Design the sequence.
């Protein structure tokens, strides 16, 4: 058999039917569901009189709209101030009950962001096809899964048929060799990749990350990278399976055990691209060249190293690009050529499906330990990705480190990543955010988002402006 | 799903690359549990001068006079002319729902984000990829001629200009068939029930660990 990429293998393993025009029917092993993109799908199912094809393939959890305020959470839906959000959350509960779908409810200690709890519970396993009505489903590709976001009509389609009508993507390899320097994280790596290839650089591709620097990452780091593959245009990110993957999966709630696990592991070992597999595009970076990154504009490709500057539109030849940069600088309230280190921050958000896992919180805590939030910073939110992450962080005393620094320790949810709940920026406010999108208004009407790593966010919270976390450590 | 065959409509130009789904329909409107009613909030942040909140009466809100869709000459537009990487960002199908609810039947751009592109087909909204230089020309023609309309012929897979030019576009045969006939693809997939069951039986045997959790 010809050499195949990891994506080729996952595709072949799930192909139900290939059609002549290039479209195909692909089998879906795991369907993750949240409250925002599912109500219309359940409604469509009910209107057509259809039942879910395979109940146990689904797992639902509320995350986008939930309050992260500890007081509000104690009272459950009954005390939720935002009635529109409450209705959407209750609709998820009702739909799951009506159709018999397993749901981790708001009050469950495992509740959290869908892309954090999927892997954490073992609901996501290597070699699976995983979909969810959320573009950051690419996260799960860290486990050697074919995982990507789908729209609500496709959510309905997967519920009804356990399949997706799709078309094979092309193969891209992002190869990062060398070692990341101290203070430089997976987030910086993926921002640097997006800065290099642009937000449409991966459109039409499944993006595999490989090389020495990727192998050296923990599962948390790999999830951060695959999470943001979509920000480079690639619906799916991928990392091949190795010991790190297998050790993470072992013992998880929904993972296989005993002899079945050993059989699975033997199969999972093959979930890597063949050595001589051909990729349609290869992008190479050296890990040593990557500095901590800070985004300055309204597209994740608008990013610069912390030692760098905001671009000067006058120096850009292409009229379309120049207009884009001018518009971004106007929206962001930045002057051409200003130093990244001179950008002051009003709020800091540490959380999201990109960076709310235990390793992220440890990295942030390591920076703030013994320090305090700058007086000019109005608020620092630390929002753990799940109940399990929260419990682990509390067991390690990280919550106290944050509290002593003047940071707020919250309940799990998507929170200020997309501000569907009360956690949002006010117009004009700059935010150092560990989330994934810096689009206009993403974190609140008129809000100004700067994407950074957890350590860089913590450093900005302490300094009141962006600062190279490697210098702060000294 | 509504069928799409041939459509002739006024063209509105949105001259901006990387239009993301947060711009198309901001997140506060995603709290709705319905599929309809998103049109008044399409491009909310660009279209109005105040902050949009769910269930507000948009007819009373201050319009941004500089935004292209607010200009009198583009009222009633049903074809959106856009730039590179249109629909990037989230998977929210509320984006095509909002475009459809506003009255758009087709979007023409040099490139679309993958998930948005797929979502359009589910809603009878036709995304058309044309070469950048053709899109550039269309932008110039729209600006030069008030009332500029294009005809989109899905069966013939071409876009026709008032001047008689035509530009072909590609589309998957399956997607085309569904759009032309307004077919629900769930029904079509369910015709493959035997193949799906056979796949499942094979997978249960070869990878039983996928069937325990």
Sequence:
């Amino acid at each position: 058999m010809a050499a195949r990429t990891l994506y080729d293998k996952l595709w072949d393993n799930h192909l139900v039917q290939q059609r002549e025009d290039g479209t195909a029917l692909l089998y879906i092993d795991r369907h993750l569901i949240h409250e925002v993109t599912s109500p219309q799908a359940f409604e469509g199912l009910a209107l057509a009189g259809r039942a879910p094809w395979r109940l146990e393939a689904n797992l639902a959890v509320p995350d986008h709209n939930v309050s992260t305020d500890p007081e509000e959470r104690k009272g459950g839906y009954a005390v939720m101030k935002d009635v529109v959000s409450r209705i959407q959350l209750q609709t998820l509960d009702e739909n799951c009950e009506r159709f018999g779908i397993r749901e981790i409810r708001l009050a469950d200690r495992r509740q959290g962001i869908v892309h954090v709890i999927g892997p954490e519970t073992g609901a996501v396993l290597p070699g699976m096809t995983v979909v969810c009505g959320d573009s950051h489903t690419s996260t799960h590709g860290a486990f050697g899964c074919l995982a990507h976001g789908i729209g609500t009509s496709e959510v309905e389609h997967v519920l009804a048929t356990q399949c997706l009508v799709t078309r094979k993507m092309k193969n891209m390899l992002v190869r990062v060799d060398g070692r990341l320097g101290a203070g430089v994280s997976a987030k910086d790596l993926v921002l640097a990749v997006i800065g290099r290839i642009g937000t449409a650089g991966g459109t039409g591709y499944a993006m595999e990350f490989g090389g020495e620097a990727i192998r050296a990452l923990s599962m948390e780091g790999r999830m951060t990278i695959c999470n943001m593959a979509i920000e480079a245009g690639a619906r799916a990110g991928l990392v091949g399976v190795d010991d790190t993957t297998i050790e993470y999966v072992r013992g998880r709630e929904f993972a296989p055990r005993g002899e079945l696990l050993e059989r699975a592991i033997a199969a999972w070992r093959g979930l890597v691209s063949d050595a001589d597999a051909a990729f349609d595009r290869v992008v190479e970076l050296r890990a040593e060249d990557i500095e901590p990154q800070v985004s300055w504009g309204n597209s994740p490709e608008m990013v610069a190293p912390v030692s760098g500057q905001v671009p000067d539109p006058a120096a850009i030849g292409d009229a379309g690009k120049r207009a884009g940069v001018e518009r971004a600088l106007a929206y962001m309230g930045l002057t051409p050529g200003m130093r990244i280190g001179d950008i002051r921050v009003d709020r800091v958000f540490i959380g999201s499906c990109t960076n709310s896992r235990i390793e992220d919180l440890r990295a942030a805590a390591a920076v703030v330990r013994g320090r305090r939030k700058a007086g000019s910073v109005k608020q620092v939110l630390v929002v753990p990705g799940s109940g399990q992450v929260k419990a682990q962080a509390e067991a390690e005393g990280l919550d106290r480190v944050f509290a002593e620094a003047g940071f707020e320790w919250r309940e799990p949810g998507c929170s200020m990543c997309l501000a569907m709940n009360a956690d949002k920026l006010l117009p004009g406010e700059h935010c150092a955010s560990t989330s994934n999108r810096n689009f206009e208004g993403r974190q609140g009407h008129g809000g100004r988002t700067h994407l950074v790593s957890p350590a860089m966010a913590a450093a900005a919270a302490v300094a009141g402006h962006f600062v190279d976390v490697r210098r702060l450590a000294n | 799903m509504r069928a799409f065959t041939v459509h002739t409509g006024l063209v509105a130009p949105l001259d901006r690359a990387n239009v993301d789904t947060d711009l198309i329909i901001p997140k506060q409107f995603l709290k709705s549990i319905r599929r309809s009613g998103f049109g008044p909030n399409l491009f909310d942040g660009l279209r109005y001068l105040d902050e949009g909140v769910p269930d507000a009466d948009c007819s009373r809100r201050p319009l941004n006079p500089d935004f292209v869709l607010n200009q009198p000459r583009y009222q009633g537009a049903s074809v959106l002319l856009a730039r590179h990487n249109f629909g990037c960002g989230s998977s929210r199908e509320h984006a095509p729902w909002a475009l459809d609810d506003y009255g758009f039947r087709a979007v023409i751009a040099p490139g679309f984000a993958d998930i948005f592109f797929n979502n359009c087909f589910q809603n009878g909204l036709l995304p058309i990829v044309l070469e950048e230089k053709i899109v550039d020309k269309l932008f110039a023609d729209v600006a030069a001629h008030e009332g500029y309309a294009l005809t989109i012929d899905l069966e013939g897979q071409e876009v026709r200009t008032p001047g008689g030019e035509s530009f072909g576009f590609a589309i998957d045969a399956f997607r085309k068939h569904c759009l032309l006939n307004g077919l629900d693809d769930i029904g079509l997939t369910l015709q493959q029930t035997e193949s799906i069951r056979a796949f499942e039986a094979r997978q249960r045997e070869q990878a039983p660990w996928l069937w325990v959790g």
